[in-house]
C-alpha cells in the first residue's frame, strides 16, 4: 500500500493537520523523508527525542527487553519498572513513583492525588486548584481545565470545578487568589506552550512560600522541562525551589511513551490500593527504554553539554537577528528556546516553521509569535551549525517575501 499525506485525510480523525512531509528514517539529529530529503531536527518530537533518533543505548534496551517480557498488568510488578523508580527517587527529592503513559496522565494522577490528600488531611472544603494563564498540562478533561488556555477546554460541557487561574510571574495576583481552601498549585517551572516563559526568582520562591503558608501542595509539571532539557536533570534543581509533586514524561522515554508522577512518601500514602491505576503504566518495555535514556542523560557530561549547545544556538540566533532584525528576544533555558518575533513579524511564527521545513530544518512554534526549538540534548555541534544555516535561509525567505 502506498502511504501518502492524502491517506491521512481518508483514515484519520481531523484534529491534526500534519505537514506533507512523511519521515521514514532517523539517525542522531538527522531525519529522511519518503523522497530521501534530509532534515536537521531542531524539534525533537516536541522535546521528546532527548537523545535523537535511534540512539544505540535505546535501541539496545528495546531489543533486549523485547526478547524478555513486554507487558505485565499491575497485579504484578517487574524489574525495569522498579529499577527506573529507584533511579528517579535517588536523583530527586521524591520517595515514591507512579508510572503512566503520558504527561497528561501523570498530571491527572498528580491532581487526583492532591485532591485526595486534601480531603483526607484537611476536609472537603480544601479543594481549590490554582494554575496559570497560558499554562499547558495535557488534554484529559481535568488537565485541560487546569491548563490556562480556555480555547483548549471550551466546548466539551461542564468543566471540573474549583479550578482558578492567574497570570504567570504575577505574585500579587497569585497571593490574592490563594487561601486556606487551596489544595494545590500546578505550574510549569518554565512555561512551554505558553511562549517559553521563565519564572522570576521572586515569583517562583514566592509561590512556594505561599503554598507553605496555606498548606497547599506545589505541583511542578516538568513534562517538557524534565530529563535534562534545561541543563539540570529537572528544572526545579536549578531554581532553588522544591515541589511536593513532580510530573515527568516526554524525554523520559526518549521517544517511547512513558510518564511518571513522583512525590514524597507522606503524600503518596493517600493513593491507597484501588484509588488510581493504569493498564500500561509501568510497562516493562517502556521502563527498560526509559531507564537507558535516564542513565544516558543523567551524567555531568551530557548536562554540561546542554548548556554549551544552548550558547551555540543563542549565538547563532543573535547573528541571524543582526542581519535580518526579526526577533525581539530569545527566551528559555538549556535546549528549550523560543525566538520571539518582533512587531514587524508578529503572529507569523508558522511562516518561519513552514520556511524552515522547505530548507530541511524541523522546528516548532509556541503560539503564533514564538518559534520554538527543542533539539536532542546530544545533537552534534556540526548539526547545530548546519541547522542554523538552514534556519537563516528560512528567515531570509520570510523577510524577502
UniProtKB/TrEMBL annotation:
<feature type="binding site">
    <location>
        <begin position="103"/>
        <end position="104"/>
    </location>
    <ligand>
        <name>pyridoxal 5'-phosphate</name>
    </ligand>
</feature>
<keyword id="KW-0963">Cytoplasm</keyword>
<dbReference type="InterPro" id="IPR015424">
    <property type="entry name" value="PyrdxlP-dep_Trfase"/>
</dbReference>
<dbReference type="GO" id="GO:0006526">
    <property type="term" value="P:L-arginine biosynthetic process"/>
</dbReference>
<keyword id="KW-0055">Arginine biosynthesis</keyword>
<comment type="similarity">
    <text>Belongs to the class-III pyridoxal-phosphate-dependent aminotransferase family. ArgD subfamily.</text>
</comment>
<keyword id="KW-0028">Amino-acid biosynthesis</keyword>
<dbReference type="InterPro" id="IPR050103">
    <property type="entry name" value="Class-III_PLP-dep_AT"/>
</dbReference>
<comment type="pathway">
    <text>Amino-acid biosynthesis; L-arginine biosynthesis; N(2)-acetyl-L-ornithine from L-glutamate: step 4/4.</text>
</comment>
<feature type="binding site">
    <location>
        <position position="139"/>
    </location>
    <ligand>
        <name>N(2)-acetyl-L-ornithine</name>
    </ligand>
</feature>
<dbReference type="Pfam" id="PF00202">
    <property type="entry name" value="Aminotran_3"/>
</dbReference>
<comment type="subunit">
    <text>Homodimer.</text>
</comment>
<dbReference type="InterPro" id="IPR015421">
    <property type="entry name" value="PyrdxlP-dep_Trfase_major"/>
</dbReference>
<keyword id="KW-0663">Pyridoxal phosphate</keyword>
<protein>
    <recommendedName>
        <fullName>Acetylornithine aminotransferase</fullName>
        <ecNumber>2.6.1.11</ecNumber>
    </recommendedName>
</protein>
<dbReference type="InterPro" id="IPR017652">
    <property type="entry name" value="Ac/SucOrn_transaminase_bac"/>
</dbReference>
<feature type="binding site">
    <location>
        <position position="279"/>
    </location>
    <ligand>
        <name>pyridoxal 5'-phosphate</name>
    </ligand>
</feature>
<feature type="binding site">
    <location>
        <position position="136"/>
    </location>
    <ligand>
        <name>pyridoxal 5'-phosphate</name>
    </ligand>
</feature>
<dbReference type="GO" id="GO:0005737">
    <property type="term" value="C:cytoplasm"/>
</dbReference>
<dbReference type="GO" id="GO:0042802">
    <property type="term" value="F:identical protein binding"/>
</dbReference>
<dbReference type="InterPro" id="IPR005814">
    <property type="entry name" value="Aminotrans_3"/>
</dbReference>
<dbReference type="GO" id="GO:0003992">
    <property type="term" value="F:N2-acetyl-L-ornithine:2-oxoglutarate 5-aminotransferase activity"/>
</dbReference>
<dbReference type="InterPro" id="IPR004636">
    <property type="entry name" value="AcOrn/SuccOrn_fam"/>
</dbReference>
<keyword id="KW-0808">Transferase</keyword>
<dbReference type="InterPro" id="IPR049704">
    <property type="entry name" value="Aminotrans_3_PPA_site"/>
</dbReference>
<feature type="binding site">
    <location>
        <position position="278"/>
    </location>
    <ligand>
        <name>N(2)-acetyl-L-ornithine</name>
    </ligand>
</feature>
<feature type="modified residue" description="N6-(pyridoxal phosphate)lysine">
    <location>
        <position position="250"/>
    </location>
</feature>
<dbReference type="GO" id="GO:0030170">
    <property type="term" value="F:pyridoxal phosphate binding"/>
</dbReference>
<dbReference type="InterPro" id="IPR015422">
    <property type="entry name" value="PyrdxlP-dep_Trfase_small"/>
</dbReference>
<feature type="binding site">
    <location>
        <begin position="221"/>
        <end position="224"/>
    </location>
    <ligand>
        <name>pyridoxal 5'-phosphate</name>
    </ligand>
</feature>
<keyword id="KW-0032">Aminotransferase</keyword>
Amino acid at each position: 500500500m502506498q502511504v501518502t499525506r492524502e491517506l491521512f485525510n481518508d483514515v484519520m480523525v481531523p484534529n491534526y493537520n500534519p505537514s506533507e512531509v512523511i519521515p521514514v528514517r532517523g539517525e542522531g539529529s538527522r531525519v529522511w523523508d519518503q523522497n530521501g530529503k534530509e532534515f536537521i531536527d531542531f524539534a525533537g518530537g516536541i522535546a521528546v527525542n532527548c537523545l535523537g533518533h535511534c540512539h544505540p543505548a535505546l535501541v539496545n534496551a528495546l531489543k533486549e527487553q523485547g526478547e524478555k517480557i513486554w507487558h505485565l498488568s499491575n497485579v504484578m510488578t517487574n524489574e525495569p519498572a522498579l529499577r527506573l523508580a529507584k533511579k528517579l527517587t535517588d536523583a530527586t527529592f521524591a520517595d515514591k513513583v507512579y508510572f503512566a503513559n503520558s504527561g497528561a496522565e501523570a498530571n491527572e494522577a498528580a491532581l487526583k492525588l492532591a485532591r485526595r490528600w486534601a480531603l483526607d488531611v484537611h476536609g472537603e472544603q480544601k479543594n481549590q486548584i490554582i494554575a496559570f494563564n497560558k499554562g499547558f498540562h495535557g488534554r484529559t478533561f481535568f488537565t485541560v481545565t487546569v491548563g490556562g488556555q480556555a480555547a483548549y477546554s471550551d466546548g466539551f460541557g461542564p468543566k471540573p470545578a474549583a479550578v482558578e487561574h492567574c497570570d504567570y510571574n504575577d505574585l500579587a495576583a497569585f497571593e490574592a487568589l490563594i487561601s486556606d481552601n487551596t489544595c494545590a498549585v500546578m505550574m510549569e517551572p518554565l512555561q512551554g506552550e505558553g511562549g517559553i516563559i521563565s519564572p522570576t526568582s521572586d515569583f517562583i520562591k514566592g509561590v512556594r512560600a505561599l503554598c507553605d503558608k496555606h498548606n497547599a501542595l506545589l505541583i511542578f509539571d516538568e513534562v517538557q522541562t524534565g530529563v535534562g532539557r534545561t541543563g539540570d536533570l529537572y528544572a526545579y534543581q536549578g531554581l532553588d525551589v522544591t515541589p511536593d509533586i513532580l510530573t515527568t514524561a516526554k524525554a523520559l522515554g526518549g521517544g517511547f511513551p512513558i510518564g511518571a508522577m513522583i512525590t514524597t512518601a507522606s503524600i503518596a500514602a493517600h493513593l491507597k490500593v484501588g484509588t488510581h491505576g493504569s493498564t500500561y503504566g509501568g510497562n516493562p518495555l517502556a521502563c527498560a527504554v526509559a531507564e537507558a535514556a535516564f542513565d544516558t542523560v543523567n551524567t555531568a557530561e551530557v548536562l554540561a553539554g546542554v548548556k554549551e549547545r544552548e550558547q551555540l544556538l543563542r549565538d547563532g540566533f543573535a547573528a541571524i537577528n543582526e542581519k535580518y532584525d526579526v526577533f525581539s528576544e530569545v527566551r528559555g533555558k538549556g535546549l528549550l528556546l523560543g525566538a520571539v518575533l518582533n512587531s514587524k513579524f508578529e503572529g507569523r511564527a508558522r511562516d518561519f516553521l513552514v520556511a524552515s521545513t522547505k530548507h530541511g530544518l524541523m522546528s516548532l512554534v509556541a503560539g503564533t509569535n514564538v518559534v520554538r526549538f527543542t533539539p536532542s540534548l546530544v545533537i552534534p555541534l556540526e548539526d547545530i551549525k548546519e541547522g542554523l544555516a538552514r534556519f537563516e535561509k528560512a528567515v531570509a525567505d520570510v523577510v524577502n517575501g
